[in-house]
Design brief:
mainly alpha, globular
Length: about 400
C-alpha cells in the first residue's frame, strides 16, 4: 500500500522535511500528554523569565529603536558612520545603530533592526547577513551582572567574560567582511567618505522627516504595536524551549547530548559536570551558565564553557532571531555558522584573558562597572540605566572613530 502511495505521490526532499517536523510535533504532543506536570512547570518558569526579565529589560530598547528608525535617526547615523562601517565591516553606516543597540540589549534586537533595514533597502542581502551575524552580542549586563555577579559572585570575572565575547565579535565581523564580501560600497557609491560630514548627516535627517510625515501619536502607537508583537513572539519561544528542556532532561536526552559534546570538546578536557552545563546551554544560555557556575570544576573551565554558550547563544535565541526575519528572504545559515565560529573564538579569547590575570580595576571602564561590585543583583531600573550607558559608550566611540577617519581621509 505504501509503495502504491509512493508511486502515485513521489516524495521530494522538501516533503521529507515537512514529514519530519510533523513527526516531531506529534512526539512532542505525546510527551506533553504523558508528563503534563513537567509541561506546566516549564511553562511557568518560562513565563516568569519573560515577565520578570525579558519584558522590562527589552521593551524600552525595542520601543526607542522603533521610534528612532521612524524619525530618521538611523539615516543620520548611516551618513555619519559610513567612513568606519564600510572599510572595516563592509556594511552601510546604518550598521552602527545595530551595533549600539546590540551592545545595549543583545540579540534578537540586532536582527530585528537589521531585518527592518533590509526591508527598507538600506542594506543588501549579503550586508544584512553579515550585520546580524557579528552583532549578535549577549547583553553586557547579563554577562556583568547576571553571570559574573549573580551566578559566580565574582564581579572581576565580568570584564574577562565580556572582553572575550566582544573581541570574538570584532574578529568575526572583520573576518566576514573579507570571506563574505558581497558589495563593498553598496548604496553609497555616490557619497565619498570625505563628504560624509555632520552637516550632510543632518541634511539626510531633515529629508527623511519631510518625507515621512507622521504625528507623534501615530509614531508612538506603531512603535508600541511592533515592540509588543515581537516581544510576545520572544516570550512564546522562551516558554516552548523551557518546556522542551524539561522534557529532554526527563527523557535523558540532555545526558545523551552531554556524551556527544564530550567527544566534540575533547581537546578542552572538560569535566562531566561542565559537559552537562554545555548540553543545557545548547538550548538556553541562561540555564547552561547557571549550571556551569554551580559545578565544582576549575574556574577556567567554567568561564570557558560560559564563553562557548554565550557565543552559541542557544537554540532559544536563534529561534527568536528566526522569528524576526519573518517576511524576508534572509537566511539563518550564515547566522548559525557565525554562532559556531563566535563560540570557538570567544572561548580562546576568554582563556587568554583569564590566563593573563586580567582584573576589573585595570580598566578605564571600572567607574562605569563599579556599581556591580559587592552586589548579588541589581534592580531592573539599574540594569536598564547601565545598558543605556553601554550603548551610548559604543555609539559615541563609533562616531568619534568615524570623524577621525573622515578627517584623515580628507588629509
Amino acid at each position: 500500500m505504501l509503495s502504491k502511495l509512493y508511486l502515485k505521490y513521489p516524495l521530494r526532499k522538501k516533503d521529507l522535511v515537512g514529514l519530519s517536523w510533523t513527526l516531531a510535533a506529534l512526539l512532542l504532543m505525546l510527551s506533553m500528554l504523558i508528563k503534563p506536570e513537567l509541561v506546566f512547570q516549564g511553562a511557568v518558569e518560562g513565563l516568569e523569565i519573560w515577565w520578570q526579565i525579558i519584558l522590562p529589560s527589552l521593551l524600552p530598547f525595542w520601543v526607542i529603536s522603533e521610534i528612532l528608525m521612524k524619525l530618521g535617526f538611523v539615516t543620520f547615523l548611516g551618513v555619519l558612520m559610513e567612513p568606519i562601517m564600510r572599510p572595516l565591516f563592509h556594511v552601510p553606516g546604518e550598521g552602527g545603530f545595530v551595533v549600539a543597540m546590540g551592545v545595549s540589549s543583545g540579540a534578537p534586537v540586532n536582527s530585528m533592526i537589521t531585518a527592518e533595514l533590509y526591508r527598507k533597502k538600506m542594506c543588501t542581502k549579503n550586508e544584512a547577513h553579515r550585520l546580524m551575524s557579528f552583532t549578535a552580542f549577549s547583553s553586557p549586563l547579563f554577562m556583568l551582572s547576571a553571570v559574573a555577579v549573580g551566578m559566580f559572585n565574582q564581579p572581576e570575572l565580568g570584564i574577562v567574560i565580556a572582553g572575550g565575547h566582544y573581541l570574538a565579535s570584532l574578529f568575526l565581523g572583520l573576518g566576514m567582511a573579507f570571506l563574505y564580501p558581497g558589495n563593498a560600497r553598496g548604496i553609497y557609491d555616490t557619497c565619498s567618505y570625505g563628504e560624509c560630514s555632520l552637516i550632510r548627516a543632518f541634511k539626510a535627517l531633515i529629508r527623511h522627516q519631510r518625507r515621512e510625515k507622521k504625528g507623534f501619536g501615530k509614531l508612538m502607537g506603531d512603535s508600541l504595536s511592533s515592540a509588543a508583537f515581537n516581544l510576545i513572539n520572544i516570550g512564546s519561544f522562551i516558554v516552548i524551549f523551557t518546556v522542551l528542556i524539561k522534557l529532554f532532561n526527563e527523557a535523558g536526552l540532555v545526558n545523551l547530548l552531554s556524551s556527544g559534546l564530550g567527544f566534540l570538546f575533547s581537546p578542552f578536557n572538560f569535566s562531566p559536570d561542565i559537559l552537562t552545563a554545555l548540553a543545557r546551554g545548547f538550548f538556553e544560555t541562561t540555564l547552561g551558565s547557571q549550571t556551569a557556575s554551580q559545578t565544582l570544576a576549575p574556574s577556567l573551565e567554567k568561564i570557558t564553557a560560559v564563553a562557548i554558550m554565550l557565543g552559541w547563544s542557544g537554540l532559544s535565541v536563534q529561534a527568536q532571531v528566526a522569528s524576526t526575519l519573518y517576511g524576508t528572504d534572509l537566511s539563518m545559515k550564515p547566522f548559525v555558522a557565525a554562532r559556531i565560529l563566535h563560540a570557538l573564538l570567544a572561548s580562546l579569547f576568554t582563556w587568554f584573558l583569564f590566563s593573563s590575570g586580567l582584573e576589573l580595576s585595570y580598566f578605564p571602564l571600572a567607574p562605569v562597572l563599579g556599581p556591580l561590585k559587592g552586589k548579588a543583583s541589581l534592580s531592573m531600573l539599574s540594569l536598564i540605566i547601565l545598558s543605556l550607558k553601554a550603548g551610548l559608550i559604543a555609539l559615541t566611540s563609533l562616531i568619534i572613530m568615524s570623524f577621525a577617519l573622515s578627517y584623515f581621509k580628507k588629509k
